[in-house]
Design goal:
The structure is a single chain. 77% of the residues lie in helices and 0% in strands. It has six helices and no strands. The chain is elongated, with a radius of gyration of 15 Å. The relative contact order is 0.15.
Amino acid sequence: MTATIAVATFAVGVALALAATIEDARTHRLPNRLVGPCAAVGAVGLAAASFGEPLLRSPHLVLGAVAFAGPWFVVHLVSPSSIGFGDVKFAAALGIYLSWFDPIAGLLACALTLLAAWPHSVVHALRRTGATVPLGPYLLIGAAAAAIVA
């Protein structure tokens, strides 16, 4: 039963995260109508999947969200024009899912996100177009890569 709940939670979470990243790639905005439910499904579903374990994973869910979103939040506070708050919220949502594998996998996901987004950012900087790079797709790539490694 636990595995079924976890698989269903991940299936819904992946669908919502993919929809959010597609919208971000098109509009450069991560919609709250997708990011909020993505986080809620992850928190409720993974908490339910871990129910009955000797040590509930609820603290792990919070730690996972903070591990992935924390560094992005600091960057947002220092330079709000660099990273939008939608990116921070999306990282927190993805961090909840990463906590299923390892509560601090979000830190690895941050590094992998930077590695994935770097070439796109450099091209935009060299072109000096002033356009922003949507970070949502790279956050999802970083989270998926961290889940595979963790």
